[in-house]
Specification:
By secondary structure, the chain is of the alpha+beta class. The chain has two domains: 8-114, Glutamine Phosphoribosylpyrophosphate, subunit 1, domain 1; 124-331, Glucose-6-phosphate isomerase like protein, domain 1 (Rossmann fold). Helix content is 30%, strand content 25%. It has nine helices and 18 strands. The protein has helices at 130-136, 138-146, 164-168, 179-196, 205-211, 231-243, 257-261, 280-296, 304-325, and strands at 8-14, 17-26, 31-34, 45-46, 61-64, 76-79, 84-89, 92-99, 104-107, 110-111, 113-114, 150-151, 154-155, 172-177, 200-204, 219-225, 246-251, 264-267. A five-stranded antiparallel beta sheet has the order 1-2-7-8-9, with no helix packed on it. Residues 163-302 form the SIS domain.
Length: 340
């Protein structure tokens, strides 16, 4: 592994060792799913998965780059960290990581996580395709994005609570993303500037890296990624961390690399999105970033009427989207303007 360059996720199998498998990663996503693990033990640290198995059934292991791919088989998973080595032999799992001081691999104790996702979320149901399904799921996804966070009196974002003072002192907010996530941040920029009074700049992650654009300790860098595993966005995150900026993550995937490596952040809770063209994740990203703006600017009396107007508008979004979904197809060609 020390001789490899770039990003990779590798799994090795040999006919000479039929009951063994080795996996490792750096920069790319690799998930280990573990089946037949009892719920009461799923949060325990483990070096050998045999200690977690209580029912005597055969164990199954699944490797994937996406949590959605393993939900049909198990809800117990381990997000493999960079430079970790997973060794599976005769139904047991060992985790090793190279110790730079000792210059040799050392055993690592890790905990399994529980995937909060149902099989129904990755099926089309009665819809013709996933994009159609996800468009019609937006009233529900918007509701779950705002549930417990948006209140008449303001916004409660537990993921940012401990960092609000630092956010308010920021010299600049930098939104960093790729593709649809970048466009969602672009749509949210006016809210942030209006409600916080903090200048906002936009960066495409790959362009920021190519230019080695300036980032300072007084800046707040907000990284937006539906999967939390976008390669260029993660490289830009490493760059911002090196520069000492406060790094905030906005992602749809609990346990993703983005959610683990940022200082703080918000999960959009939009549910699994399979369609290539983003729909419900895009709208939920905009709503989350609007709520971030509301939280940062909540100490400014001059913007109180505007904040109340935006909160009212956000609260009405799910019902308005439901109304649009219920329109006959011939009427959906009309243009609707929703002001919040």
């Amino acid at each position: 592994m020390r001789q490899l360059e770039g990003a990779y996720a590798l799994i090795f199998k040999s006919p000479h060792y039929p009951n063994e498998l080795i996996a490792c990663k750096r920069g790319s996503t690799l998930i280990l799913g573990v089946n037949e693990v009892s719920d009461q033990n799923s949060a325990k640290s483990f070096q050998n998965v045999k200690s977690l198995t209580t029912n005597g059934n055969p164990r199954e292991f699944f490797f994937s780059s996406d949590l959605c791919a393993i939900v049909e088989h198990t809800k117990n998973y381990l997000a493999i960290e960079d430079n970790e080595i997973i060794h599976i032999k005769d139904g047991s799992v060992s985790i090793l990581k190279f110790d730079k001081e000792k210059e040799k691999p050392a055993s690592v104790q890790r905990a399994l996580s529980v995937l909060e996702m149902e099989v129904e979320q990755i099926k089309k149901g009665s819809y013709d395709h996933f994009m159609q399904k996800e468009i019609h799921e937006q009233p529900h996804s918007l509701t779950t994005t705002m549930r417990g966070r948006l209140k008449d009196s303001g916004v409660v974002l537990g993921g940012l609570k401990e960092h609000l003072k630092t956010l308010r002192r920021s010299r600049r907010v930098i939104f960093i993303g790729c593709g649809t996530s970048y466009n969602a941040a672009l749509a949210a920029r006016p809210f942030v500037e209006e409600l916080t009074g903090i200048p906002v700049t936009m960066e495409v992650a790959s362009d920021l890296l190519d230019r080695q654009g300036p980032i300072y300790r007084e800046d707040t860098a907000v990284f937006v990624s539906q999967s939390g595993e976008t390669a260029d966005t993660l490289l830009a995150l490493e760059y911002a961390l090196e520069k000492g900026a406060l790094c905030v993550g906005v992602t749809n995937t609990v346990g993703s690399t983005l959610s683990r490596k940022t200082h703080c952040g918000i999960h959009i809770n939009a549910g699994c999105e399979i369609g290539v063209a983003s729909t419900k994740a895009y709208t939920s990203q905009i709503v989350v970033m609007a709520m971030i703006a509301l939280a940062i600017g909540s100490d400014q009396l001059s913007t109180q009427p505007r904040r109340e107007s935006i909160i009212t508008g956000l609260s009405s979004l799910p019902s308005m989207k439901n109304w649009i979904n219920d329109l006959p197809c011939s009427q959906t060609k009309c243009r609707f303007t929703i002001t919040i």
